[in-house]
Amino acid sequence: MKIAHIEIREIRLPLVHFFETSFGRTTERRILLARVRDADGAEGWGECTAGEGPFYSEEWIESAWTVIETYLAPMTVGREVESAAQVWDLMRAVRGNRMAKAAIETACWDLEARRQGVPVWKLLGGARSEIASGVSIGIQDSPEALLEKIEREVTAGYKRIKIKIKPGWDVKIVERVRASFPDIRLSVDANSAYTLADVPLFKQLDGFDLMMAEQPLAYDDMVNHAALQRQIETPICLDESIRSAEDARKAIEMGACKIINVKLGRVGGHSEARRVERVSRERGIPVWCGGMLESGVGRAHNIAMSTLEGFTLPGDVSASARYWEEEIVEPPITVSPRGTIRVSDEPGLGVEIKHKRIDDLTVRRESFTAAP
Predict the structure, then answer these.
(1) Domain boundaries in the chain?
(2) Which of 61, 107, 124, 152 is buried deepest, with most CB atoms within 10 A?
(3) 131 near 301, Cβ under 8 Å?
């Protein structure tokens, strides 16, 4: 497979409803898409999940655009690989910048799957044709607004509810949610908003039968997470701290977590995500797919990844309509009344790209073509 052409675009996609975490509030997504073509004109699509600013990680859309334009695209365009699994190695000389790398790497998985006439999930070695879906609900303007949103999502059938917390929006909020919904599978996500000084707070959260507390401490920490896990009953789930299979192995051996959130962008694409899944599964640690407010392209890649054997917990892959008035793929991602997503058997990502929609949303683009 020769990577003959790479195109990157930035699109602007307004959210149906703002999404707020401890980092801040997002009302519109700036999304970087990558399209990769082979010498025969077949194409695949990927998405960079970097945010509008360097808050979730060091990467953000401007740094991703620059590193792809200056380094990653020139490193990969014109190169031949036997499979998409080798694309990561073409970019190995660049340290970090995993979200930027994932945009190209995941596009190559879509391209290879389309060339072979198989869905991406089967090419990855997926073990299931239906995945369980959960939702992530951001911080709201009031507790009442949060409870209303949870009611809608529970009624829609979602298998797990995750709410964002931050200092001042934590124990009392969780107490109200649990009182209103005593039987739901509930988890909290702190996005690194706390320290070990908050151990008493997390001991209070032990009383609400939570599935997990996600990334409560620093984004680059494992030692203090291990110390916190020893003192609380609620399973800790690591997110930002896990950037590779080696990180997963070390965190598990240290006792820093009992669950791992896998995000394609954070680990650099499908190849490394498969390694994280395998390392975790072999050590008895469940994984699940986290979300980054992706468009339908990134969402379809998340669905494919979630079919791997170790993804035993409901992820953040939810319906397109929760986020966008109109998707950039057809059909949009939908969730059944049972809270599940049926995986497509169509080649590639299993969705069609709405080229006109993407053209209308594009604010900049750049192309890279192999020399003849």
Answers:
(1) 5-116+353-369, 123-342
(2) 107
(3) no
Burial pattern 74-103, b for ≥16 Cβ within 10 A else e, equals: ebbbbeebeebbebbebbeebeebbbbbbb
Given CATH 3.30.390.10, say whether it is the number of domain 5-116+353-369.
yes
From the candidates 101, 149, 162, 263, give the one annotated as an active-site residue. Answer: 263
Strand ranges in the chain using DSSP code E only, listed in sequence order: 5-21, 24-37, 43-48, 130-132, 135-137, 161-164, 186-189, 213-214, 236-238, 259-262, 287-289, 329-330, 340-342, 352-353, 362-369
- How would you classify the pairing of strands 161-164 and 135-137? parallel
Q: Is 166 a catalytic residue?
A: no
Going by C-alpha positions, the residue among 27, 171, 48, 160 that lies closest to residue 105 is 48
What per-residue confidence (pLDDT) applies to 94? 98
152 touches 135 (CB < 8 A)? no
What value does the CA radius of gyration of the chain take, rounded to a whole number of Å? 20
User: CA-to-CA distance for 318 and 142, rounded, in angstroms?
Assistant: 23
pLDDT of 371 strictly over 90: no
Q: Tokens 């790209």 map to which residue?
A: 353
User: CATH number of the domain at 123-342, out of 3.40.190.170, 3.20.20.120, 3.40.47.40, 3.40.190.10?
Assistant: 3.20.20.120
Choose the catalytic residue: 149, 162, 164, 166.
Answer: 164
264-307: pLDDT as tens digits: 999 999 999 999 999 999 999 999 999 999 999 999 999 999 99
Task: Provide the angle, in degrees to the nearest 10, between the axes of the packed helices 98-116 and 270-282.
Answer: 100
- By three-state DSSP, how is residue 148 classified? helix
Instruction: Give 75-126 pLDDT, tens digit per residue.
Output: 999 999 999 999 999 999 999 999 999 999 999 999 999 999 999 999 999 9
164 tagged catalytic: yes
Token pair 């917390």: residue: 165
| pTM for this model (two decimals) | 0.95
